[in-house]
Specification:
- There is one protein chain.
- By secondary structure, this protein is an all-alpha fold.
- Helices cover about 75% and strands about 0% of the residues.
- It has three helices and no strands.
- Helix 2 runs antiparallel to helix 3.
Length: about 80
């Protein structure tokens, strides 16, 4: 059961403005994901600035390890 389903089951949308509260929670969640994604891209671009071709692979590999650690590892493998 998703968070939206729980909100509906708990009667969150039954009160006045409840729909807007659920919508605001969804929008804030998406905004949070966007902020984290933009920050990750900025960190990688900053790390790649001034590196040579041989060092770029190591920087990208390290950035991928950090992203995997934040996300919880390799789920599909």
């Amino acid at each position: 059961m998703s968070a939206l389903d729980w909100g509906i089951a708990a009667g969150v949308t039954a009160g006045p403005g409840g729909f807007w509260m659920v919508l605001a929670a969804g929008v804030l969640s998406v905004c949070g994901l966007v902020v984290v994604a933009v920050a990750a891209v900025r960190v990688v671009r900053l790390a790649l600035d001034g590196t040579g071709p041989g060092e770029r692979a190591a920087v990208l590999r390290a950035a991928a390890e950090v992203v995997r650690a934040v996300r919880g590892g390799r789920r599909g493998r």
